[in-house]
Write the structure tokens for this entry.
Amino acid sequence: MTFQEFGIDNHIVKAVELLGYTSATTVQERVVPEGLQGKDLWVKSQTGSGKTAAFGAVLCEKVEWDQRYPQALVLVPTRELAIQVAEDVKNIGRFKRLNVVPIFGRVAIANQELQLKQRTHIVVGTPGRVRDLIQRGSLKLEQLKYVVIDEADEMFFIGLRQQVEEILRLLPTNRQTMLFSATLSEEIEAITTKFMKSPQEIAIESETQTALEIEQFAYEVEESDKINLLVQVTKSEKPKSCIIFANTQIKVDAVAHKLKQLGYPCQELHGGLTQKDRMKVMKRFKRNEFRYLIATDLAARGIDIDDVKLIINFDISRGAQNYVHRIGRSGRAGKSGKAITFYTSREKRSFQEILDYTKADIQLVSSNDLVITELMEQEFKKLITTAPKRKEEKSKELNQSITKLCIRAGKKDKIRTCEIVATICGIDGVVADDIGIIQILPMVTNVEILNKKGNLVYKELHSKTIKGKKRKVYFAK
Ligand code: AMP
């Protein structure tokens, strides 16, 4: 099925096509039609199945452009996911000019409050900050009609259940709620009965589940031998991109330090880094600027990185559900992947729990079987000393058709949206549909110009007046 066949707005279909989604994934085929009918949904599907675009398409179709306050709220467990999901949904709603705002903790709340003062259609946020902004009256709920609880199992696993419940109690009851989780639990069932209206259950069967696309292996190894084994395994596998999970910041730093000494193109990611550095590392890894990411479970949750060839659990995960999340970073969107887990003799029970929970065929291998030949050594050396091929961002084509302009006039000059639209539409060859999101800030106004007309508008705006005056215009970053 294609997105056009869902009967949704052409603006959304166009964006989805530019993102390269030529046909819908199974979860999209099941979720979009039901979601469009306004039903409450309880969807069990793995990350990597295309669920963000599934609820993204439903929300973008449903929200009305001319409403002032947020109509949809998406709750996600981590800041990284808030940013990623907001970006994905924004891309889908781009041509409908939907303003999608990410909100998350540990950064200044004032900026987010300022953003929410603009016309906002969809908010994507982590529970703590969402609750704070609701309580401060900055996140208005009167027009809220659609709620998505994404990665519900993860949200509860990291102790956010109470906050999610508090938020759900504050929301208008006349709403559509869609809940997504990779795994099922009594806690999730409790939420669905307490806060949802006879939700329709949609379970995406195992053939599309990430775990089955991933070959899984495990080594029993003593703690002191792990680094050695890691080196052997990477030499033997020669992964072009790989995430190595360890359980603590200290461990991550230690492994990264060792691998850097050995010349591996690697970077570490954990909660001890500043938010800015975390984002930078993720962005660089997504672009394939280095091959090996050594991370705590921060990177395990829902983060969408294309084509990770190998996952190594340097430390066995805490909890079987987390194992599923970690290895799900590989084998995304139907691609194949591989996961290798190290466990010590004292962790046999944890390993057994994973086997029982996943019912996966995890093959036990011995480090004695790993023979690294001279040729393998050479090939590996070549791999880690050649720069990886950069990856284009998925939204590149979509973004190429969009130019962001910054006009030196804002709220202080009493500029209003209609004046900006009128001036831009006064340019020959430009119509209202070519204008994207307009954001009026105190001193400046940011305007998105769509359909590759940015240069034309930039050139012509210099000679036009807005509110009686010529205004300076720049290309925004
Ligand atoms: P998600 O499960 O939402 O994390 O999405 C997994 C990946 O699948 C993301 O990289 C999406 O960009 C990609 N994706 C989503 N829908 C489609 C589609 N219809 N066709 C191809 N790729 C898709």
About this structure: Residues 206-211 have pLDDT under 50 and may be disordered. DSSP finds 19 helices and 20 strands in the chain. Residues 21, 24-25, 28, 47-53, 304, 306, 332-333, 394 surround adenosine monophosphate (CB under 6 Å). The longest strand covers residues 214-220.
